[in-house]
Amino acid sequence: MYKLVLIRHGESQWNLENRFTGWHDVDLTETGVAQAVNAGKLLKDGGFEFDIAYTSVLLRAIKTLNLALEEMGQHYLAVERHWRLNERHYGALTGLDKAETAARHGEDQVKIWRRSFDVPPPAVELDSEHFPGHDRRYSHVDPAILPRAESLKLTIERVLPYWHDVIRPSIQSGKRVIIAAHGNSLRALVKYLDNMSDEAVLELNIPTGVPLVYELDAEFNPVSKQYLGDPEAIKAMMDAVAKQGKAK
Ligand code: DG2
């Protein structure tokens, strides 16, 4: 039996402002910092120990991981940061207000962009500031595989090679793993682990800064899955994420 902990970063500045974020690099808010520290407390109280941590190359996830590990007294852990764990690329929606976008294009269209399995948002042009090819942190990546917009399907296709090549073998070798990532890069992983249908994933919303603990059998089938913390508060956080796409 393996244990795996997933955590979405704490509230970011653009979560607070209700803007589509994707690969744009924003910091945590004060609430986000408190959520990350609280996640560390919950993990410490639960007796969790890790051998390696994986995260994206975006500040909000890196910082959440650091804060949680520090709170647990495990700040010395090896950390691997990889662009394949980045948030889904929100394309030309990046930076737009989610509620205003719903007022302009309709809530149904925004739900399709946010939660459908295979409909990507409109793509950014190659000369857009939001095309990752202009950012030196991706200079080692073939620009042809850098995204200009991603559906959940495309996100799964870029997260899974890292899961299969790096994270899964690391867990199989006996390492206890925590992954700090994003709403949709984690939806990608959860859909895969839970073998969730394309329809069911429409209603999957991951709260910020709450550890999600999986127990997996030898074949990596989930045996149990549980968020740490107060179930009612967590449910309210998930509902709030779903409502971000409603027109005001
Ligand atoms: C959010 C998720 O990503 O947004 O890109 O706006 O997890 O990095 O804050 P995160 C974004 P939704 O898909 O929930 O709208």
Automatic annotation (TrEMBL):
It catalyses: (2R)-2-phosphoglycerate = (2R)-3-phosphoglycerate. Substrate binds at residues 8-15, 21-22, 60, 87-90, 98, 114-115, 183-184. The record marks H182 as: Transition state stabilizer. It comes from the Bacteria. The keyword Protein transport does not apply. Its EC number is 5.4.2.11. Keywords: Gluconeogenesis, Glycolysis, Isomerase. The active site is at H9 (tele-phosphohistidine intermediate), E87 (proton donor/acceptor). Pathway: Carbohydrate degradation; glycolysis; pyruvate from D-glyceraldehyde 3-phosphate: step 3/5. Homodimer. NCBIfam families: pgm_1, PRK14115.1. HAMAP family: PGAM_GpmA. Catalyzes the interconversion of 2-phosphoglycerate and 3-phosphoglycerate. Belongs to the phosphoglycerate mutase family. BPG-dependent PGAM subfamily. This is 2,3-bisphosphoglycerate-dependent phosphoglycerate mutase. The gene is gpmA.
